[in-house]
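Morning - zinc ion inputs below, output right after.
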Amino acid sequence: MLPSSPRPAAPGWLEVWLEAGREGRTFTYANPGHLGIGVGDLVRVRLQGRPHTGLVVATSAERPAALEGKGILPVDEVLQSAAIDPLWQALLEGVAGQCHAGLFRTLKSALPPGWLGQSRRAAGLGRLQWQLRPDPAGSEVPPSARQQALLDHLARHGGQRLLRDLVAADGFGRSLIATMERRGLLLRESIRTPAPGGPGGPGGEPGCLRQEPPRPPNPAQAAAIRAIAAAPAGQSLLLWGVTGSGKTEVYLQAAAQELEAGRSVLILAPEIGLIPQLLDRCRRRFGQDVIEYHSGMGDGERVVAWRRCLDAGLRRQPCLAVGTRSAVFLPLGQLGLIVLDEEHDGSYKQESPMPCYHAREVARLRARLTGARLLLGSATPSLESWCRCQPARRGEPADTLLLALPERIGQRPLPPVRLVDMRQELVDGHRRLISRPLMARLEGLREKGEQAVVLVPRRGYRAFLSCRSCGEVVLCPHCDVALTVHHAPRAGGDGREWLRCHWCDHRQELGDRCGHCGSSAFKPFGAGTQRVMEQLAAELEDLRLLRFDRDSTRGRDGHRRLLERFAAGEADVLVGTQMLAKGMDLPRVTLAAVLAADGLLHRPDLRASEQCLQLLLQLAGRAGRGERPGEVLVQTYSPEHPVIRHLVDGRYEAFLAEELELRRQSGMVPFGRACLLRLAGLTASGTATAAAALAERIRPGLEAAGWMLIGPAPAPVARVAGRSRWQLLLHGAAATPAGSEPGAGGLPLPAESELRRALPPGVSLTIDPDPLEL
Ligand code: ADP
Ligand code: ZN
Ligand code: ZN
């Protein structure tokens, strides 16, 4: 999507979105004429005497009837011509609708940070100006003598000239130029004249790496690549390929097809940590011009990347961009393909601030609007995407086309899964975090020149209560989810721990004996990477360890540097949190182990099982990618849990089918919809009162639509950074049957701005439709 040109000549009245205004409404301003303003321009206007940034969303030649007899202020200044084009605006409106968020808020979060309101100089953007050239498409009407004179004049100036120069220096009239644009004789483009001292344009280092040729695809890869090329415009495809099956190679070859056809490609990965590897592979294949865009970059760098996309669009040059979820908004022109790697990953969902969009749904919408194809890739597809591959009715085509890569490259086997029953460990008097079988496996590692990754789940620690003897987990009597352990807040309680349900706010005391078997080995789970490192170091002295978590991978290249050290053989074991499971391709890793899988199994969340199995299968995917066969070792207190069973069988599709049936019975996504309203305020009582008032405000609308209101209840983490948090959970039937249009139907809620007005000052609100965490 790029600034579209030519645009109609400027009419008299402009409809402008303002951040200050009520969401959903626009304000009318007069076009002073000489500014040449059109739809998609960012402008500076005054509202109640104060300057504001606004976006022109519509123009009209007629003065709006409602404003008859009233004074209309003129626009003061054009900040940026052609900031967005109509397709991009349609995308924003769609996203705002999906997310129940205001348009300006959505615009602001889509643009690079600081894009609005910054000076052009600071952004290194230079000045945006109009340039005119003969329309290459030509016109059916022959030019008049005056028009021909202007065309000859252009030809003498190398075929193009700034509008400003044509008018001010060369003396051509604006009305002549406007007429020629309308007749298709002239084309107007916005161009950038460099700002002194600002960063340069596109380019970067010259192609210093040799461009690597594509690998000959195996038959399954070849079939997938052909199917992507043959898919109709706007089609979604799901590439389900086991770990190490060559999905990335399919992305690269599909991307090459598009780039050769002159269309742009966008490749998304869920986490910053995956970007360096992906970027390297893209640059080796396509050269240095690949555009990078993610939140790990500085604001200035992101602005430059954004500008490069716009520039490429203006020159009708296809480009390849790689980034995380926010890159889904990059203003790429002639988009041909959007790839979402690891499409099941929850990091594609923005939780705050609003709009709480899901990059997959934004990409789907964008594909539909632009005719690009959407390629979702995963070894463990989300239930939602898998569901879309099933026809809604017999005989009908499914929404999403399923492509499969059932085997690893080189027919390497998937590693077998071995369970360690931690209850037995305890019976045998072994109370350590690391079981004896895992210890034994790690001992021989270094001699053999092999490596291991050990996952210490970050989530769920100290969260739920489980009996180390019988595996019993304490559940809520009303909700069938695990109760979680909390410290009583300092002020009210006595500092003791107690158990609470996130759903219904049921509370009970934390006992010290298991209600099931009476054992006293009844403790909250808990172990961080740090503790595991210490234990490993104490017990296996020769083993060289590296820690891979948020703390050890700080900084721009933290991930890459750490992985490079591990790949170079600096350590035998990499101990880390969730991000360990994602994407790394290291041939010497033969063991993937998880400590305390239970921390993941019993999370009080609708998607706990799905996410747990996805994570464990992804982790398993790290082992045995090279010549030597791999193995997966899972420590658990619940070996009979369905997730563990499916992990051992490797039958992911059977799991999805079972899970879908459970969701059908309980009316949960994708058979139902949910929306979370999160409130935060300075005092607990003030926030609670506001939540109750908000509940009353929305109850009638929800009831009329047949929706349920659960809560208000304190948020799972009731106090964050000194703010009290409450939440309301809304639940209702999906407007459409499973597999179509998630988020498309509106929620039975008043507009965002209405809801905010129902809250006292100081209490903030986040509307999170289709939340991932329930
Ligand atoms: P995935 O993304 O499915 O995990 P990758 O694309 O990373 O798999 O491929 C796994 C490994 O196999 C990589 O090292 C890749 O270079 C290699 N590979 C992929 N496709 C082919 C092919 N057709 N021939 C040979 N090697 C391949
Ligand atoms: Zn017990
Ligand atoms: Zn409950």
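Note: Residues 476, 478-479, 501, 503-504, 506 surround zinc ion (ligand 3) (CB under 6 Å).

O.
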